[in-house]
From TrEMBL:
Pathways per UniProt: Carbohydrate biosynthesis; dTDP-L-rhamnose biosynthesis
Cellular component GO terms, alphabetical: cytosol
Subunit composition and interactions: Homodimer.
Family under the similarity heading: Belongs to the dTDP-4-dehydrorhamnose 3,5-epimerase family.
GO MF term list: dTDP-4-dehydrorhamnose 3,5-epimerase activity
Gene from which the chain derives: rfbC
Origin: domain of life: Bacteria
Active site per the UniProt annotation: 62, 132
Any one GO biological process: polysaccharide biosynthetic process
Site (Participates in a stacking interaction with the thymidine ring of dTDP-4-oxo-6-deoxyglucose) location in chain: 138
Name the record gives this protein: dTDP-4-dehydrorhamnose 3,5-epimerase
Length: 185
């Protein structure tokens, strides 16, 4: 397993060992002991699986307020996504900055999204399947989001007219959004 630091402190790109032959491949996508050897000791409590049947589906930018903030371990098992995280931790040297990643069934990369980050993705291929683990349960009363097209963030999405949920159409800008995360160095 290879852990790759990102420009946003705390977020990590994870490259698992993949063993392939003429039959296909095998990869260990999660092993608590191996993750702990790299300092990743999150206790995941829930797995989520989303299918987007069309390219251009944009989900996000989502997060949960503390005390129900979630660390996410995300990956794609079919298709591909343009994945974006935004640092929402006040006092962080990268507060309000975003970083993008291409996650796909082909590259098998995983992204660890720490508590205090907004997260979203846009599907690049039809029938994309997105899986993620979280370390706290979904708490609807703590569910929040930021507008995917916030001009202050100026995220370089690969689409102009995304397919959005009604909820995602209504998120406020970062400047207007409620968030209660503090950077802890």
């Amino acid at each position: 397993m290879k852990i790759i630091e990102t420009k946003l402190i705390g977020a990590k790109l994870i490259e698992s060992a993949v063993f392939g032959d003429q039959r296909g491949f095998f990869m260990e996508s999660y092993n608590a002991q191996r993750f702990a050897e790299h300092g990743l000791t999150h206790a995941f409590v829930q797995d989520n699986h989303a299918l987007s049947v069309e390219a251009g589906v944009l989900r996000g930018l989502h997060y949960q307020l503390s005390p129900n903030a979630q660390t996410k371990l995300v990956r794609v098992t079919a298709g591909a996504v343009y994945d974006v995280i935004v640092d929402l931790r006040r006092g962080s040297p990268t507060y309000g900055q975003w970083e993008d990643f291409t996650l796909s069934a082909e590259n098998k990369l995983q992204l660890l999204v720490p508590k205090g980050f907004a997260h979203g993705y846009c599907t690049l291929e039809p029938n994309t399947e997105f899986l993620y683990k979280v370390d706290d349960y979904y708490a609807p009363e703590q569910d929040r989001g930021i507008a995917w097209n916030d001009p202050a963030l100026a995220i370089d999405w690969p689409i102009v007219q995304p397919i959005l949920s009604g909820k995602d159409e209504k998120h406020p800008t970062l400047a207007q959004a409620e968030h209660n995360f503090i950077f802890e160095g």
